[in-house]
Design goal:
about 150 residues; alpha+beta; Yope Regulator, Chain: A; six-stranded antiparallel beta sheet; 4 helices; globular
Length: about 150
């Protein structure tokens, strides 16, 4: 079992009374989901939680940093995921509190993304109906001149 799997188990144990936590392999690490909500990353034996503007202050107060990664063009950072304090690994109750906050942040972000997409396409329903009609229309034979 890897360090990443061990951390996933710690998180599962902390949230067992709340719901089901699942992990999916991604880019050498693990993407962590709670009821289909992606709220955490585990990479190289380090856990990161989804943050918002307001929840980021908790991470900054602990002098933690965002998730960083290496690309062929140099280092990159994902500022919406921050390192989880080490001390939480031995404190399931506090881990649960921090995880619940990360889950709420991830759900809010998903709702906000949905609203933004709808606002960008106010005629989305009409477009979907139009598409459905065109798909169900009878195909026209191709002319020989094409």
């Amino acid at each position: 079992m890897s360090a990443n799997d061990d951390l996933l188990d710690i998180l599962r144990d902390a949230l067992t009374s709340v719901g089901v936590v699942t992990g999916r392999r991604m880019f050498g690490g693990i993407g962590v989901y709670f009821d289909a909500t992606f709220f955490a990353l585990i990479d190289d034996g380090v856990m990161y939680f989804k943050v918002s503007e307001s929840s980021r202050a908790n991470f900054e107060a602990e002098r933690l940093r965002p998730f960083t990664y290496q690309t062929k063009n140099g280092p990159g950072a994902l500022h919406s995921y921050w390192r989880v304090p080490e001390r939480l690994m031995d404190d399931p109750e506090e881990m649960r509190d921090w995880a619940r906050t990360a889950i709420a942040v991830a759900r809010d972000a998903r709702r906000e993304d949905g609203r933004r997409k709808t606002a960008e396409r106010p005629d989305a329903k009409a477009t979907a109906i139009g598409t459905a009609r065109s798909v169900s229309a009878k195909p026209r034979p191709l002319s020989k001149n094409r």
